[in-house]
Amino acid sequence: MFRRLIVVLLFTFGATLGVADALKVGISPDYPPLAFQQEGNIVGIEADNLRALSEIMGRRMTLVPMSHDKLMPSLLSGQIDVIMSGMSVTPERAEKVMFSDAYMRIGQMAIMHKDKVARFAQPWSVYREGVRIGVEPGTTGAAFAESELKDAEVSFYVDAAAAFQGLREDQIDLYIHDAPTSWNLATSKTDTDLISLYSPLTDEMLAWAVRKDDDALLAELNRALGMMKSSGTLRYILNRWIPVTVEVR
Q1: Fold for the domain defined by 108-196
Q2: Fewer CB within 10 Å, N- or C-terminus of the chain?
Q3: pTM of the full structure
Q4: R_g over Cα of the chain
Q5: What is the DSSP code (8-state) at residue 89?
Q6: β-pairing, 41-43 with 30-31?
């Protein structure tokens, strides 16, 4: 089905694959459903986005997997050309890179163990004094905790799996992370003891990033993204991986 959509899109817009140099695309494949490993392959929303962009732009695009904290340095040093890894647009990041048009709206959400639903069932409960919050360093969740949860006890976890274990061992009360982590939790067969509030604490947009001097590539990405939106390809990709309704602008 996905390939048929791409064929229709190619017929409509006339892309010619392989004309320009290949692009190296940085991705952190530990963030389902945006990007994750499955049977030795990187799959998810960003992997499908890359396939669609490659066809429309007529350029080969190669995924370069790395940890989240290496994405920005690798882009700035020229080791990769684009970041496609579920990155939220922030003023701090926009000082270093240029962002494409947004492809999805998300927000931070709080995840807890089901034993604590009665205590944290309301969104305002996140802001109470002494709440033990878990976040991942360098994320918008960490920035939210620093600016908005000044009375909380904040702990840092390397990834969602470590934070989930922290919830199970009662090291923290809540884990704050991007909405896709909560969406993935909704269909997980292994994390059924955890639950999300599903009430966004922030309003964020996801986009792709390029270097400040790469105006031509940014224009290419935005043109291709516009085609993905108008053809319905982007909506198909999002619906394929997300079990809830999301807003695209």
Answers
A1: D-Maltodextrin-Binding Protein; domain 2 (3.40.190)
A2: N
A3: 0.76
A4: 19
A5: P
A6: unpaired
